[in-house]
Design a protein that fits this description.
Elements (H helix, E strand, L loop, with lengths): L3 E12 L2 E13 L4 E5 L6 H8 L7 E10 L2 E2 L5 H4 L7 E4 L3 H4 L6 H12 L4 H14 L5 H5 L8 H13 L5 E5 L7 H18 L2 E6 L2 H7 L2 E6 L2 E7 H6 L4 H8 L48 E4 L2 E4 L1 H7 L25
Parallel strand pairs: 3-8, 3-9, 6-7, 7-8
Antiparallel strand pairs: 1-2, 1-4, 4-5, 9-10, 10-12, 11-12
C-alpha cells in the first residue's frame, strides 16, 4: 500500500455565477521516500492539489468527490482536530514565499519552538536544542545566532533554508514543496533543490515538488505528473517523460526550456494561454492550443492510454499506439508518427 493515495479527486469553488471545477478526476500515489514532481503552467491546478492533501482549501472551495488516504487513513473525512495531528507533523509543507510563512514579529527560535510545542510535550530547552540541530542539518551558518534573529534580518536563501528546517522539525513522512525556489536567484535555487534532495534521501522522506520548471523536476524527482486545466494529462517516470514526452502539451513545456532554443533566436513557446476555470473547452481542454488536434479532440475528453511506463490522456497518442493514421485539423495531412513512442507493455 502506498504511503499517500489520491483517488479521483474533484475540487470545486462555489461562485455567484455557479460552481467551477478546479480539479477533475485527479489520481496519483506516493511511496515512502519517493520524490514526485507535479508540473504545469500557472492555473493548471498544481497548488490546489497540494493544498487539498492537507485540507487547506478555504471556502468557497471544497472537495466535491474522491478520496485522500495517508498511511491507510482517509484524510478528507477527518475532523479538523484529528487532522492537526497529521498536518505539520507527519506531512509538512513548504510554501512559495518564506516571508509569507514566517511571522515577522517573532524570532526564528520562537517560531520553531512554538511549532514543536504544538505537537509534542517538550520543554523549551529541549525544543531549542532540536531547533538548533535542524538548522545545522540545513547548513545554516552560525545557527545559535540565527535562532535569536528576526526573518527580515536574513537573506532570501537563508529564510528558505529555515522554512525547510521547520518542515523537518517533527521528522515528517512527506514534505509538500509548493514552488520553493520561485523568489530566489538561479544559484540559490540550485542550492535549495540540492539540499531538499539530500535531506529526502538521508531521512527517507517522501517529496511532492510543485513547479513549472521541468529542468528542476528532471534533476530531483523520480516520477512526474503533468497537469493542465485541473486534470492530469501525463504521468510516469521522470526520465521517460523528459526524454520522450508523449502529450503535445508536455512536448511544448520541454521545447519552451531556454536550452532548447538556438542561441540568439527567440525562445519557443506554446501558443495561447491556459483557459480560465469558467471557460474550459469541450473535449480535450488543450485542443485550442494543440497543433495535432482533430475532430474528436473537440468533442470527447481523452482517456488514459499506456505508452511504455507512462500514462497519457491524448486521443492522438491513443491512435498512434493502435497504429492508426491521425489527421490534425490545422494541416489536413495524415500523421503516421508524431513522437517516438516506446513499446507498450501488454
Amino acid at each position: 500500500m502506498a504511503l499517500l493515495e489520491v483517488n479521483n479527486l474533484d475540487v470545486r469553488f462555489a461562485m455567484r455565477g455557479g460552481e467551477v471545477c478546479a480539479l477533475r478526476d485527479v489520481s496519483f500515489s506516493l511511496e515512502r521516500g519517493e520524490r514526485l514532481g507535479i508540473v504545469g503552467e500557472s492555473g493548471a491546478g498544481k497548488s490546489v492539489a497540494a493544498f487539498t492533501i492537507l485540507n487547506l482549501i478555504a471556502k468557497p472551495g471544497y472537495i466535491a468527490g474522491g478520496e485522500i488516504k495517508f498511511d491507510g487513513t482517509v484524510l478528507n473525512t477527518m475532523k479538523p482536530k484529528a487532522l492537526q495531528s497529521i498536518r505539520g507533523n507527519r506531512i509538512s509543507m513548504i510554501f512559495q514565499d518564506p516571508m509569507m510563512t514566517l511571522n515577522p514579529v517573532l524570532t526564528i527560535g520562537a517560531q520553531m519552538i512554538e511549532c514543536l510545542k504544538a505537537h509534542r510535550r517538550i520543554s523549551t530547552k529541549d525544543a531549542r536544542a532540536i531547533a538548533l540541530h535542524k538548522l545545522n542539518q540545513v547548513f545554516i551558518p552560525s545557527p545559535e545566532k540565527r535562532l535569536d534573529q528576526y526573518p527580515h534580518e536574513l537573506s532570501g536563501g537563508m529564510r528558505q533554508r529555515i522554512i525547510i528546517a521547520i518542515a523537518l522539525l517533527l521528522d515528517p513522512d512527506i514534505i509538500v514543496a509548493d514552488e520553493p525556489t520561485t523568489a530566489l536567484d538561479v544559484t540559490i535555487q540550485a542550492e535549495i533543490m540540492e539540499l531538499l534532495l539530500l535531506l529526502c534521501e538521508k531521512h527517507n522522506v517522501g517529496l511532492i515538488l510543485i513547479t513549472h520548471d521541468l529542468g528542476v523536476v528532471s534533476q530531483v524527482t523520480q516520477r512526474t505528473l503533468v497537469m493542465y486545466a485541473g486534470r492530469v494529462i501525463e504521468q510516469g517516470p521522470t526520465r521517460e517523460i523528459i526524454n520522450d514526452a508523449q502529450h503535445p502539451y508536455t512536448q511544448g513545456l520541454i521545447n519552451a526550456l531556454p536550452q532548447m532554443a538556438t542561441p540568439g533566436s527567440r525562445l519557443n513557446q506554446i501558443r495561447g494561454s491556459m483557459p480560465t476555470l469558467t471557460k474550459i473547452p469541450a473535449g480535450c481542454a488543450f485542443n485550442p492550443r494543440c497543433d495535432f488536434a482533430s475532430d474528436i479532440c473537440l468533442q470527447e475528453v481523452p482517456n488514459f492510454v499506456g505508452s511504455g511506463n507512462c500514462k497519457v490522456a491524448c486521443h492522438m497518442v491513443d491512435a498512434m499506439v493502435k497504429g492508426q493514421p491521425w489527421t490534425p485539423i490545422l494541416t489536413d495531412k495524415p500523421v503516421t508518427k508524431t513522437v517516438p513512442l516506446p513499446e507498450v507493455n501488454a
